[in-house]
Automatic annotation (TrEMBL):
Comp. bias intervals (Basic and acidic residues): 11-24, 92-101, 111-198, 207-235
Biased composition regions of type Low complexity, renumbered to the chain: 77-87
Protein's recorded name: Uncharacterized protein
Organism: Eutreptiella gymnastica
Region: Disordered, residue numbers: 1-235
Signal peptide (residue range): none
Length: 235
């Protein structure tokens, strides 16, 4: 009964047109639109009416394919074809020239179609969000794995470098110790040679002293013999 009133019906149609216009403007700028045309399967897009993302401006005209053929201005027709009735059984009466059943059916079919399209849009948008979230999770997981790998490689490189430095230090210490030992051995040998030389020199000096004393003894003995012979000759 409410929609049989010309004023109520006209207001309902105006509100529906305004809502459709707002929805078209709203969804025209959504990221989902590019997803729909790139990844989704939409009968309006797939029938060839929209060939690329640049054809988004024709989205409103594509909506008209879902809603059927264009309707005349029902508000104007209603004002001309409806009349007040003085019947006691009903407050309003349908004019004979206008069939309201087909208009009402078209209105509700159009609303039902838009609801279905909206549900499909929400479903695809939810799938798109889930796909993007899965991609972000995979990217974060890969990033964490890459960070762990780089950290492990850095730690391994640091450990290898530290081991090489310790090995080099150990070799240097061994070489230094070896040089010190060789120097000590060389010094001991030099000292030993000096001691031997001193001993030899002392032995030589002792031998020379012995030879000198023996020569002196022989010289004195010879002198005594000569003196004794001279005395004998004088006698």
């Amino acid at each position: 009964v409410y929609l049989r009133c010309p004023q109520a019906r006209s207001r309902a149609l105006e509100e529906e047109r305004h809502r459709e216009k707002q929805e078209d403007q709203f969804f025209a700028g959504e990221p989902w639109d590019s997803f729909q045309f790139d990844k989704g399967e939409d009968p309006v897009v797939d029938d060839g009416s929209v060939s690329s993302v640049e054809d988004l401006d024709g989205f409103a005209s594509a909506d008209s394919l879902h809603s059927g053929p264009a309707k005349p201005d029902l508000a104007q027709e209603s004002s001309e074809s409806w009349a007040w009735s003085s019947s006691e059984e009903s407050d309003f009466e349908v004019h004979a020239k206008h069939d309201t059943s087909s208009d009402e059916e078209g209105l509700f079919i159009d609303m039902d179609e838009r609801i279905k399209r909206r549900v499909e849009q929400l479903r695809k948008e939810d799938e798109w969000r889930k796909e993007k979230e899965a991609e972000r999770k995979a990217a974060r997981k890969a990033e964490r794995a890459e960070k762990k790998r780089l950290k492990r490689e850095r730690e391994e490189a640091e450990a290898k470098k530290k081991a090489e430095e310790e090995e080099l230090k150990r070799k240097q210490e061994e070489e230094e110790l070896k040089r010190k030992q060789e120097a000590e051995i060389s010094e001991e040998r030099r000292q030993s040679m000096l001691e031997e030389q001193k001993i030899q020199q002392m032995q030589q000096m002792a031998e020379q002293r012995k030879q000198y004393l023996e020569a002196e003894r022989q010289r004195k003995a010879k002198e005594q013999e000569e003196k004794a012979r001279e005395k004998m000759e004088k006698k």
